[in-house]
Amino acid sequence: QGKQKKVRKYAVMKRMISLRDQRINEKDRAKAPVKKKDDPSAIKEREVPQHPSCLFFQYNTQLGPPYHILVDTNFINFSIKAKLDLVQSMMDCLYAKCIPCITDCVMGEIEKLGQKYRVALRIAKDPRFERLPCGHKGTYADDCLVQRVTQHKCYIVATVDKELKRRIRKIPGVPIMYISRHRYNIERMPDDYGAPRF
């Protein structure tokens, strides 16, 4: 009979002495955590996100004519393709005065697109457009629009970008304007604002 082969067990760890072991000197031992007793008279603090006072559930009281509409880069490009006048089509959609707003980031994006989109740049520089300055670094317009809409609930976002729409739908009380069938439509706009529902 041959000698039986001794196989090492898989993933065997070295046995280590616990820091609370009796053989370790008193000064080297790990101290047991001391539990503090809660003072019942102390004021309990907790972080609660501040909800805007303009929202009553999904109803946004800050939205009203004249509507301020944040315009995205692709919305201007798709409007040109659909041969739509931006301001006039917005007024036809909402039945009220509309002020299209354009941020520095969106302006930067259109300028970066180059000579091919010079018509979009000329439309963006229209005096009827309100220019909104940006105080952050970079020119990624989607983050800028989402941040602006989260802080101030007085805007409607005009975009065709699916990813941006998905992000804005998560913010309560912010309607989205989009293009379909060669006209502007509005999404999530209550009847109380005097605007049609589609």
Quick structural summary:
This protein has helices spanning 73-81, 86-94, 104-113, 118-124, 141-151, 162-169; strands spanning 55-56, 59-60, 67-71, 98-103, 130-132, 155-158, 176-180, 183-187. It is α/β, with parallel strands linked by helices. The strands form two sheets. A six-stranded mixed β-sheet has the order 5-4-3-6-7-8, sandwiched between helices.
Structural write-up:
By secondary structure, the chain is an alpha/beta fold. It has a domain at 72-187: 5'-nuclease (Rossmann fold, 3-Layer(aba) Sandwich), CATH 3.40.50.1010. Helices cover 27% and strands 16% of the residues. It has helices at 73-81, 86-94, 104-113, 118-124, 141-151, 162-169, and strands at 55-56, 59-60, 67-71, 98-103, 130-132, 155-158, 176-180, 183-187. The longest helix is centred in the last third of the chain and has 11 residues, at 141-151. It is elongated.
Structural features:
single chain; 198 residues; alpha/beta; Rossmann fold; 6-stranded mixed beta sheet; 6 helices; 16% strand; disordered C terminus; rRNA-processing protein FCF1 homolog; PIN_dom; rRNA processing; Fcf1_PIN; PIN-like_dom_sf
